[in-house]
Specification:
Blueprint (H helix, E strand, L loop, with lengths): L1 E6 L5 H13 L4 E4 L7 H11 L4 E4 L2 E2 L5 H15 L3 E6 L3 H6 L8 H16 L6 E2 L4 E2 L26 E4 L3 H10 L2 E2 L9 H14 L9 E4 L2 E4 L11 H10 L7 H8 L3 H12 L3 H6 L3 H6 L2 E3 L1 H14 L3 E3 L1 E2 L4 H15 L3
Parallel strand pairs: 1-2, 1-13, 2-3, 3-5, 4-5, 5-8, 8-9, 9-10, 10-13, 11-12, 11-14
Antiparallel strand pairs: 6-7
Helix pairs in contact: 1-2, 2-3, 3-5, 5-6, 6-7, 8-10, 9-10
């Protein structure tokens, strides 16, 4: 099992890059660079490319609405060139509050848009003259559209690779099915190993049944906080505020994808309680309302035997890369955690 980590989108990114350099030496396979509504991810990915040598650099994620499909392809090719073929294009729909609120763009047809973006990106990377007519995107515009001057073009520079891997942050059944059919990787959240089959098994199977047999198997990136040692169980609560933020605050009542996933695990009442508390401004109470059973099942915090059991469950459920939030007060402590984690993962 490979190991990745999600980089924060707040704080001192220069210090974060220094940490990635140390984690790279310790065997980190991939770093996800987030983009919410702070700094853009691509600038940071380019800087990371210049300061590292082996770690894969992934956008985690770029919202599909904020860039044209061709710009997404150009961007991924650019980071891939800077990094010597280490880029991963992570895409997702984000949510209506960010897309319509911060970007002022209508949030519509996320599955259709994602499907068309994947196809367009792969055409661009192959340097085909781009001609595409979809439900949401059309290149070039016809002679009676715009100024009528559009014509099929191909990328000027040859990309480092014919394809940059595409990972999709998908939660809904149709989105997960499309991801399993077309994408190179799947980036779920709130991944509960023992409940994945019930929640997403049918969608994954349907997508894989339509998958091009010449395409490599789907990578699955999932995980949680990691701290390894005796007596660390109280540290599992470190994940409560983030869980409450997503379950309760990432969306409105009736339109929160993360809340829907959490509820589908059998926590319907808890999902409503956490959302009500969070949206009423009671964030600490919302965090404490996250069930202990969920926290325990979705973190890798505890003795080596516990972590090994959770890693085994993740691997058996289909996870190929553990997305680890390494716990520690210093870079040195987090590097040590990664080293312990790799030693356990290599035995599974």
């Amino acid at each position: 099992m490979k190991i990745s980590t999600q980089l924060g989108y707040s704080g001192n990114f220069l210090e974060t890059v220094r940490e990635v350099q140390e984690l790279e030496k310790a065997g980190l396979d991939l770093a996800w660079v987030a983009e919410a509504y702070g700094f853009d991810a691509v600038s940071l990915m380019g800087y990371l490319a210049a300061k590292t040598t082996t770690v894969r650099i992934a956008s985690g994620i770029l919202p599909i609405y904020t860039r044209t499909p061709t710009l997404l392809a150009m961007t991924a090719a650019g980071v891939d060139a800077l990094s010597g073929g280490r880029a991963v294009l992570g895409l997702g729909a984000s949510g209506p509050q960010v897309i319509e609120g911060f970007h002022g763009i209508e949030y519509d047809a996320p599955v259709t848009r994602t499907r068309e973006i994947i196809e367009i990106c792969r055409q661009v990377w192959k340097r085909d003259r781009l001609e595409f007519k979809g439900k949401k995107y059309k290149m070039p515009l016809g002679p009676d559209e715009g100024l009528g001057l559009g014509k099929p073009l191909k990328m000027i520079l040859p990309p480092v690779r014919d394809e940059v891997p595409i990972a999709i942050a998908a939660l809904g059944e149709k989105s997960v099915e499309m991801t399993a059919e077309l994408a190179d990787g799947w980036l779920p959240v709130f991944y509960y190993a023992e409940k994945v089959k019930d929640r997403w098994g049918a969608a994954l199977a349907a997508g894989r049944a339509k998958r091009d047999p010449n395409r490599a198997p789907l990578e699955v990136f999932a995980g949680s906080a990691v701290a390894i040692g005796e007596g660390l169980e109280p540290m599992r609560d470190i994940g409560r505020p983030m869980a409450a933020l997503y379950i309760g605050g990432m969306g409105a009542r009736g339109k929160n994808f993360y809340n829907d996933v959490f509820a589908s695990y059998g926590y319907e009442a808890e999902a409503k309680e956490i959302q009500d508390l969070y949206l009423d401004g009671k964030k600490q109470e919302a965090a404490m309302a996250v069930p202990k059973s969920f926290i325990e099942a979705t973190t890798l915090v505890g003795p080596e035997g516990f972590v090994k059991d959770r890693l085994t469950a993740l691997k058996e459920s289909g996870v190929t890369t553990l997305n680890a939030a390494l716990v520690g007060n210093t870079i040195e402590e987090r590097v040590q955690t990664l080293d312990k984690l790799r030693n356990i993962a290599e035995k599974i």
